Amino acid sequence: MIITIMTSLDLIADYREGTDAWHLLLEALLVLVSMGAIGFLVRAYWQRLKELELVKQQLSQTHESLSKSRELLDESREQLRVAGQEYQSVIQKQFDTWQLTPSEKEVAALLLKGLSFEEMATVRNTKEKTVRQQATSIYRKANVTGRHEFAAWFFEDFLQ
Question: What digits encode the pLDDT tens for the residues 15-36?
Fold first, then answer.
């Protein structure tokens, strides 16, 4: 911009002094080119501002959408937590119906979680043989033949 102004002032001064036409033409061309460049830069600047505003709008919409998704996820998690508590209550009532001992209830819960006998023994700080005997007692009281049938007894209704 400063170059354009300075060149324009020089062009006017040279014209008043009667400078050669080719020199005036060259300076006039320089003024036109610099004005075109200024116009190009101003146009590019306004385009970038418009693009920036569009990106800001998109970002705002994304934040709103993300916020709604988080709310839905939080609601779903809460529903799952409540359903899990209710289902845990149902499981405990069934354990009571089968008259499982406190140790058997603990082993039964670990069976439903999918732990191996070795893992259950480690968690309970007991021997694997003890866990196996308790599992056998649980299967007998529940009238099932093994771990898979025991787990299926509780999850069967979810698959219908």
Answer: 788 778 887 788 888 878 888 8
Under 8 Å between Cβ of 98 and 134: no
pTM for the full predicted model: 0.57
* Tokens at 21, concatenated: 């036409």
Q: Which ranges of the chain have pLDDT less than 70? A: 11, 157-160
What token pair was written down for 39? 């116009």
DSSP state of 110: H
Reported as type and span, the H/E element at residue 52 is helix 21-97
Helix or strand (DSSP H, E) at 13 = helix 2-17
Tokens 């998704």 sit on residue: 69
DSSP string spanning 61-90?
HHHHHHHHHHHHHHHHHHHHHHHHHHHHHH
Q: What is the CA 158 to chain-centroid distance, rounded?
A: 28
Residue 157's pLDDT is 66
Dist CA 62 CA 54 (whole Å):
12
3-class DSSP state of 31? helix
**Is residue 99 a contact partner of residue 141, using CB atoms and an 8 Å limit?**
yes
Tell me the torsion sign for CA atoms 137, 138, 142, 144: negative
